[in-house]
Design a protein that fits this description.
Aminopeptidase; single chain; about 35% helix; about 30% strand; alpha+beta; 7 strands; seven-stranded mixed beta sheet; 6 helices
């Protein structure tokens, strides 16, 4: 169904607002997000517009003949914080690993970070398979009673 040799990243644009909203409010996505709160389309549209306009955020959509997922890189500490998701129709097909590899290649060199809930085993396995190093989690997340893992990788 999906030909991995034909997948590519394109920059997100405002016409992606509804699709990214549908992905973001999916109950499984909310359950695996650091912020599990539900939000309105109007709030998402404002947030999404701000991210697209920000020089601190780079937002991509994973494509084949149609959108498969999204990845976002946000300025963080001395590098970039990764946030990604794959449309639930395409879970279990190796696209999570692909979108991160492709995104890091687009970003070129740098330090990359990711926060992952400890219950999100598929994402943990993806970052570990890409040789991200597990590092100490800041106290602010412990205070929020979030059981998370923090990953880091230096891309040269």
């Amino acid at each position: 169904m999906i030909d991995k040799s034909k997948i590519f990243l394109r920059k997100a644009n405002i016409s992606d607002a509804l699709l990214t909203y549908k992905w973001a409010v999916d109950p499984k996505v909310r359950a695996n997000s650091l912020n599990s709160n539900v939000f309105s389309f109007e709030n998402h549209l404002q947030w999404f517009s701000n991210k697209l306009d920000s020089s601190e955020t780079i937002y991509f959509i994973l494509m084949e003949r149609f959108p498969l997922g999204q990845i976002r890189f946000e300025k963080f500490e001395d590098g970039w914080l990764i946030s990604f998701l794959i449309d639930e129709l395409f879970h279990g097909k190796g696209l999570g690993k692909e979108i991160i590899k492709m995104g890091m290649k687009e970003m070129r060199e740098g330090v990359f970070y990711a926060y992952v809930l400890e219950k999100n085993i598929p994402s943990i396995k993806i970052f570990e398979s890409l040789e991200f190093e597990s590092i100490k989690v800041e106290d602010e997340y412990k205070k929020m009673n979030l059981s998370i893992k923090k990953f880091m990788k230096i891309n040269k």
